[in-house]
């Protein structure tokens, strides 16, 4: 059976949910230039809770998009990096980032117009 994201039971919908998630997109973008430690990710991605960052990293690792390497040191050091599969998302998420930053003013203006009409 061919994958169909419109089908409720198709696994491709879960993949779409993962790669379209805000925190997943930001983690992938942060890892674009190389391996990062957990603290580096947490500092870069403002507003993400420790719980949500941990859940996102685990989900990305489970889906084969991120690797987690634990180094035997005191304190333990954990590094995260994109896999080849994860790197294949870079053009897509970089495009989303570029679109969001390029069109931010237009979107904000549209919100102001919409909110003014809704009153």
Please outline what is shown here.
This protein has 119 residues and is mostly helical.
Report on this model:
The protein contains 7 helices and 3 strands, in the order ααβααββααα. It has one domain (11-118): Arc Repressor Mutant, subunit A (Orthogonal Bundle), CATH 1.10.10.10. It has helices at 11-20, 22-30, 38-44, 50-62, 84-87, 90-102, 104-118; strands spanning 36-37, 66-71, 77-82. With 119 residues, the chain is mainly alpha-helical. It has a 3-stranded antiparallel beta sheet with strand order 1-3-2. Helix content is 60%, strand content 12%. The longest helix has 15 residues, at 104-118. This is Transcriptional regulator, HxlR family. It comes from Micromonospora krabiensis. GO terms for molecular function: DNA binding. Keywords: DNA-binding, Transcription, Transcription regulation.
Describe the protein's topology.
Layout: H1 11-20, H2 22-30, E1 36-37, H3 38-44, H4 50-62, E2 66-71, E3 77-82, H5 84-87, H6 90-102, H7 104-118
Antiparallel strand pairs: 1-3, 2-3
Domain HTH hxlR-type: 10-108
Keywords: DNA-binding, Transcription, Transcription regulation
Pfam family, one: HxlR
């Amino acid at each position: 059976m061919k994958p169909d994201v419109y089908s409720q039971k198709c696994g491709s919908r879960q993949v779409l949910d993962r790669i379209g998630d805000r925190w997943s997109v930001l983690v992938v973008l942060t890892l674009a230039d190389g391996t990062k430690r957990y603290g580096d990710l947490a500092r870069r991605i403002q507003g993400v809770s420790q719980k949500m960052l941990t859940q996102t990293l685990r989900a990305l690792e489970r889906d084969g998009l991120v690797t987690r390497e634990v180094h035997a040191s005191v304190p333990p050091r954990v590094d995260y990096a994109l896999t080849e599969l994860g790197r294949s998302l870079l053009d897509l998420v970089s495009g989303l980032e570029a679109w969001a930053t390029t069109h931010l003013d237009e979107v904000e203006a549209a919100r102001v117009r919409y909110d003014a009409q809704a009153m």
